[in-house]
Amino acid sequence: MKKLDKLILRAFAGPFLLTFAVVQFILLMVTLLKYMDDLIGKDLGWQVITKLILMFSVITIPTALPLAVLLSSLMTYGNLGEHHELTAIKSSGISLIRILRPVLLLSVFLAGLAFWFNNRIVPSANLETFSLLWDVRQQKLALDIREGVFYNGLPGITIKVNQKEGENGDRLKGVMIYDHRNGQGNATVILADSGRMFTRFGGGYLSLELFHGRTYIEQPDARDRAGASFYRQAFDRNLITFSLSSFDLSLTDKSLFKENKMMKNIPQLQQFTDSLHNKLVVERQQFPRQLNPYYVYVRLDTTGQTLRQRVENWQVPTTKLPVVNTNLLDQAENRVRNLRTYVGSSTEHMSNLAKEAGNFRIEIYKKYTQSVAVLLMFLIGAPLGAIIKKGGLGIPVLISIVFFIVYYVLSIIGEKYAREGVMPVASGVWMATVLLLPVGLFFLNQARRDSGLLETDIFGRFFRKFKLPFRSGYKKAVS
């Protein structure tokens, strides 16, 4: 039996490693395409790009693992069935459950590993990834001066170039520079017939060497605002240097992102959820008492003095209603308007607290469901492979994609319903698992009975049963 276990595990290891690498690569490409607009044209360097790719690879592991288990288990038992190895093992008196046990135990180990990875590693990877991605999004585009377009990427400087020449576009024709670094508008304007552009001091500074031009400077008069001095200076050669420090990637303090639910593990999420729940309970208890000042009525006593009294049971007896007049009606209308505004804002605030607590609970349940999905995908893939008896990358890939899409869509729908309060949080997050579990048990039962559920012959026999009565009835009608 140990040799049998080794045989099955060796048959499972190859497809699993291959499918996991392929699925991981596909999910990584999808993630990179999602953020491609934030990465292109910013001259980030290979260190930043490599770190982002590595972190994105870590984040996508919990999603790639169930699909890899589904596809590899389907391929493994499909290959065993296609080469009649599964039939030979069963003929020796070994049940299908015993044949599935090695991969089942490995799937349990992978599910536990996925839970640990999702709870310990993924939050830290999310913190590293999205804090760096935030800094990348704030990063300005790399220096890109185009012909005939005003470029204002440099702080306090606007540059326009009519024509760029040379292999690297460093030869300039018709240069116009507006310098408003002094905060007085476009007080300095530089025009030049030609020039060249290059970087200095390790790329930290940009130098423009201008030829045959003029500098126009408008100097305001401190005593007379209406008056100003105007200077014009011609030059044959002028070297201007600008700092490129604004293009450097500045890193934000990571502690600012730690409050996000994606950056927390289960104990931290549970603690934050409990604090939100306790806060919500306290506000709900205080809400009726905070309404007391609004529920008063005004009456005039015999001396004509105005008295404010608390409404008992939120109703005013008809015998104590005041004499109707304009002032009292205005006061009542204002009080009702204020009450409606307060109730609306308080209700919205408590609803937002409940939704936020629900979002944190969803994140807790997702760490469990993504781990259980590994076992669920094995429960679907392994019996299905034993039924269809087809290996390779044809039918198994198609069936795996279909089931994974169904699981993914059901998970999104259930999570959306949980966020919007349509159904309880636990029911919404576990909906996909609960709905697909009977499907896996059905396939397991069919595999144990050696059912030809997905064989083409069984469908042919099924349709032939319906054709025979029609044919016999047709012959009788003709005769």
UniProtKB/TrEMBL annotation:
- Membrane topology according to the record: Multi-pass membrane protein
Give the matching Pfam families.
LptF_LptG (PF03739)
InterPro entries of this UniProt entry? Answer: LptG/LptF_permease
Q: Which residues cross the membrane?
A: 12-33, 53-78, 99-117, 368-388, 395-413, 425-444
Compartments where located: Cell membrane
Q: Which UniProt keywords apply?
A: Cell membrane, Membrane, Transmembrane, Transmembrane helix
Has keyword Cell wall biogenesis/degradation?
A: no
According to UniProt, the name of this protein is: LptF/LptG family permease
Q: List the source organism.
A: Hymenobacter cellulosivorans
